[in-house]
Amino acid sequence: MERFGFVGLPNAGKSSLYNALAGGGALAAPYAFATTDPNVGVAKVPDPRLDALAAMSKSKSVVPATVQFVDIGGLVAGASKGEGLGNRFLSHIREVDAIVYVLRAFEDEDVPGSADPLEHLATVELELTFADLESVEKQIDKRRKAAKGDKSLAEEVAALERAKAVLEAGTPIYRSDLSDAERALLKPYFLLTNRPVLAIVNVSEDQLDDSDSVIAPVEAELDGKAEVIGMCIQLEAEAAMLDESERAEMLEALGLGEGALPRFLHAAYRLLGLRTFFTTGEKETRAWTFRAGSKAPQCAGVIHGDFERGFIRAEVIHWDELLELGSWAKAREAGKLRIEGKDYEVQDGDVLEIRFNV
Ligand SMILES: Nc1nc2c(ncn2[C@@H]2O[C@H](COP(=O)(O)OP(=O)(O)OP(=O)(O)O)[C@@H](O)[C@H]2O)c(=O)[nH]1
Ligand SMILES: [Mg+2]
User: Quick check: 331 pLDDT over 90?
Assistant: First the structure.
């Protein structure tokens, strides 16, 4: 399951975003540090292909892919030095797959705080950068000493040195010129800025018609290093509380498109290179998430470790072709099930049946 951690200044709309995506459950309130304990929730990834396959197979159970959200308390300038509630909240998002910045652009005199998303961005990034610098400084001496006795650690220490220099200059790792190989060597240190970023600019209802120009400065500043989307989080959180037909009506009336969760997921899937494959049968139809470029055994491993270790081959058909043929048995009769080996790169929308032996 992919995990997303929300960061931002107090009153930026993090808990409201959580409610918009997870369907409620978090306290959103117009005062700083409304959130003290993290909100952790899961959402099902809507996918019409899954429903169509389940109907075809008359499956007893339908299991969508899921994503997890972690909403933490607000950061303020100087959080790394103990300002506000400090930065201890950050420990709750050390292991997420991507960081979500919530950057406030909405004006509301009842909600204290700046409405300049660039100011939010600068403060949030600086605090994350300081937190990472602290982590690196804590480890680097130990690793330097260890590297004296173990030459295989030299590259890792070199990566730590590079990271330290970059962070000291105030640059988050994901925006630095560290190579993919260096960034991979830093993985065990769980640095916050060594992760993909999705920036959500929280626009007001009045800015909705012109949200492109509101998010433009953030896009320019991040310069292609992050996914940036605009969202009126307040309205989306309200919409998320409605039942499905009322929600559709509200989204339509306000021109909000497909709504917060699908929009978030599109951006997140793009950011992380996430893809979906399916398994289908009478017992269960299920959506599985994998990274673009994964081979068949790796995808089998998403289902179960034994499937990867004992992988022999996969029978594969694209979901729409299977749907047209009407059933797995008919697809087999028609000779439309491809036999793919361990080098097959699984494609988004593939339906798989794994043959394995352990
Ligand atoms: N007008 C307006 N108000 C919003 C919007 N998004 C959030 N708010 C309000 O702003 C206040 C703060 O929102 P929260 O979601 O609690 O903010 P937070 O980032 O979780 O804040 P902390 O937990 O204190 O860090 C709440 O009263 C929200 O209703 C918006 O798009 N427009
Ligand atoms: Mg909150």
Answer: yes
